[in-house]
Amino acid sequence: MAETVFAPWDDPDEKPLIRFRNVTKRFGDFTAIDDLTLDIFAQEFFALLGPSGCGKTTMMRMLAGFEHPTSGSIELAGSDIASVPPNKRAVNMMFQSYALFPHLSVWDNIAFGLRRESSDKDAIAKRVEEMLKLTRLEKFARRKPHQISGGQRQRVALARSLAKAPKLLLLDEPLGALDAKLREATQFELMDIQEKTGTTFVIVTHDQEEAMTVASRIAVMDEGRIMQVATPDRIYEAPESVYVADFIGDVNIIEGQVKAASDGLFQLSFADGQPPVLAASETPFYDGQNAHLAVRPEKVSIHTEQPDASDNLLQGKVLDIAYLGNLSTYHVELPGGQVIKAQTANTRRLSRRSITWEDPVWISWTKTAGVLLDR
Amino acid sequence: MTRLSPFNVVSLTFGFVFLYLPMLILVIYSFNASKLVTVWAGFSTKWYGELLSNDAFLDAAWVTLRVAVISSTFATVLGTMAAYVLVRGGRFYGRTLFSGMIYAPLVMPEVITGLSLLLLFIGIGMDRGVLTIVLAHTTFSMCFVSVVVSSRLMTFDQSLEEAALDLGASPFEAFRLITLPIIAPAVISGWLLAFTLSLDDLVIASFTSGPSATTLPMKIWSSVRLGVSPEINALSTILIGLVTIGVIAASIASKQSALRAKRDEQAAARAQ
């Protein structure tokens, strides 16, 4: 199966659908977006991820036309959209609160946008039925929003925003109001609908798992700046900064001084009385440079007996165990007081678990398990 | 059902007697056969008949009704517009001053409002009559409408308007198709409030009316100064009856809408 990988961001000839160029947005003294440049391509499922107040919602509202950049420009399909009011943009938004019109039925909610631009009753009816079918809402067409469940409301909001076949669909924390199980099911539903309709989706979320699941690319934001834009696996496995490594998933950050060992290998001295740890890195570091090694807990193994030689082997004792059912995270305290987290899959039943509190253990990881970062 | 203690029964009785005894006496004496208000001379409905043939009262009632309907309608339009701008307009220059000024007439003594309007109408040489009363009532009741509507707008989810714009509605369409239908109950209660205020206003109407227009409260007031007549009692009884019917109708309607909302919620629960 020679399927082409969807990666327009790697193709220099590809024209982006949305282009933020040096966009800055200030509210009074507060800078919400700080000189931000970003390309989003057609048919992408693009996630803006960050803590609250990082500017992700402002970016979305600028795309929808509810906010205007203080400086810089935003292009949609090659033309500047700064002067286009929200009701004239080929962009639709699914609101966090869904913003369903309470006095209109599900059917009329979905038809609202279509009626604004056309008076062809048959065409509108056909499109609404299509949307109802896509979101499996046929049975609820005549209900009012307060007569349906939260998950159904979410689908009405999606159907309403997709009805006009926008070039770009903005989703503001679309699954925030759903419970965990429904959210998971809806994530796959969203991806399915995105694929079926071929619409470009930009989703704003603070839920990293949601972003990892649905997105083709993720932009991790902090304080109005983009920290990194990459595919979910790159963001997770090859973060470019401690902030990104720390924001996505769980991570051990070991800070210390670097010393070049051999070709592409570096030794990181992180504490007195501890052997330096070995890490591979493609980016060069000079001797004595301050650096951080980011190692994911699941890449750290834990042993009750000293294992055979490993790239990095440290001894400590178990301080804490976080039992999550499928996984257990062991907090291992090294003699110097540092705590390293090691995660194992609980392939055995709990009663047969061999490691408990205060046990002396060895932890190990390979030289390629972690990422060496300078900031 | 909890049983009321003797103390509760006594306080309830006193409270209601205090509220309704004057009105009850008025109603009873409206059916008095005697022309003397204080002497009971048997049951009769003749004062109602005389009232219907009293053109002065009927004219005053017609003027009052016209003034109330027109002024409350104007006040509702203006008050809703003012409320919309003050709640939605963002932080424009002088907003605090404007919102303070909208609410000031609420606490302004009616005598002053009436007098200042009188001076204005004289100043611009406007003949006093139905039109001036309408203008005056619009002026003082629009701030009541504005208070009622703006308190509704403050809890209105603005993302609904944004969603309408986002789906291609012009700002006016968003207001007409989304905002207005949702805040309609507040607008209607604003209208009813303005209507009631206009209906029973005596002071401002006295200042701003002319010889050609007399409202019902003015007519009642001036007749009472010549002595309370059983006709006035009959007229007041009719007004009390109308208000009672209105209140009962409104409470039945709101009870039914509450029942409907409950049914809807149950339907929603089943759908989950």
Name the features.
heterodimer, A: alpha+beta, Rossmann fold, OB fold (Dihydrolipoamide Acetyltransferase, E2P), 6-stranded mixed beta sheet, 33% strand, B: 272 residues, MetI-like fold, 11 helices, 79% helix, globular
Summed up:
Chain A is of the alpha+beta class and 375 residues long. Chain A contains 8 helices and 20 strands. Chain A has 2 domains: 232 residues, 3-Layer(aba) Sandwich (Rossmann fold), CATH 3.40.50.300; 124 residues, Nucleic acid-binding proteins (OB fold (Dihydrolipoamide Acetyltransferase, E2P), Beta Barrel).
Helices and strands of chain A, in order, run as EEEHEEEHHHEHEHEEHHEEEEEEEEEE
What is the H level of CATH, i.e. the homologous superfamily of the largest domain in chain A?
Answer: P-loop containing nucleotide triphosphate hydrolases
Percentage of residues in helical conformation of chain A: 10-25%
- What would you call the structural class of chain A? alpha+beta
Query: How many H/I helical runs of chain A?
Result: 8
Instruction: Quickly give the CATH architecture of the domain at 62-216 in chain B.
Output: Orthogonal Bundle
